Amino acid sequence: MYFCVQKLKKEMVEEDSNGYRHILKYTSVFGSVQGLNVIAGLVRNKFAALFLGTAGMGLASLLTVTMNFLSQTASFGLSISAVRQVSAYYDEYNEKKLYHFVGVVRVWCLMAALIGVMLSIIVGYWTLAPAVALTIVGGGEIAILKGSRQLRSLAVIQTITAIASVIISVPLYWKYGQKAILSVINLMALASMIPALLSSYRLYPMRLQFSSQMINEGMGMLRLGIAYTLAALAGSGSELLIRWWLEHDAGLSMVGLYNAGSLLTVTYIGLVFAAMDNDYYPRLSAVQGMQETNAMVNRQMVVLLWLVTPLLTLMILCLPWIVPLLLSSQFLPIVPMAQISAVAMVLKAATLPVAYLTLARGRSVAYLVLETSYFLVFVLLVIFCFRQWGLLGTGIAILFAHLFDFVMIHVYAHHAFGYCLGRRTLYMIGAVLLIVSTALCIALCIYS
User: Rounded CA gap, 151 and 279, in Å?
Assistant: First the structure.
């Protein structure tokens, strides 16, 4: 009955499923949720800045990135590869295969969680083991919900997680300061996993069967996921390497400043991009024709550019007032870095919809090469530019790293998939870059 209803709904909206109306609808839904995430993050980081200081925020950043690195290492990319297969069975309306494969995903996620715990203990971060395991299990359930298009459930989960992050972190940081960092990381992982489990189990009740057949059936997902795991490790590993290098070269306070600058632009604006992940990736995976693919990618890019342009412009002009308000006056040195990084987010908005093509087409090795190349360039640029111009240099490094990524992704997509950037989309990219760059020049002239 459930699948009959879903099929009827899909047929009713089929003609507009890849149009601007659909994109705007679900981007607005998840954009609202991500807006709440931004507000929650601002509140959380404001109190973290007050109660932990720059050094405390640097330590929290190091531990969080380490936890992400460990969970990505142990998860084998299941949270990405599972979405693709679940989405395929969902589109076939094959209830029996879908329910069975959900069981396969859960078995593999539980095994990955156990591996994550052991890995955390082996490398000496046993205090992060609970967060690693909970993140892997929760990621598997999120993948199941994404693949089966449970967009409202995903929105509710993200809302609950955003609120819980504030409720958990603020009192603990106020009461215990830096001693609470590990507890906050573990409790936030738990708060993220619980609503994901409840939503997923409501649709697909738990029916675990540990057998050699279940393990063998997950090997294809594992092979696809390994490349994604290595790519994710390149990302979290590069962030960890940069923070370790900054700590060694300039101390924990510099790590805290760099992390705050990244939060204000790369992370918070990145939440707008995350809003499309729940809807765009599964839809793109289902599209095969190149003409339809080109149209979908270009539409998604246009919507993202429309969304980020006013946000980035206002952020660049208002950062000198925003930073003391959201963090504290200790963090004012991050303003030039964050302003330049904001320009890079235009390039990211023009890159990400195209980058998803490699994932949607299952080109795992190509995805690994592209991601690793970007992160290698990113790390080298940050180290070089920081030594030349300090925190300002890290903003310059972020900008040029995204420019490199933009060119590389578009060239590869054109040769591998025949993707073409639409003329109107190209004009819009140029116009948005001009607007945001003008705002940057004004801000640098006024506040220099």
Answer: 7
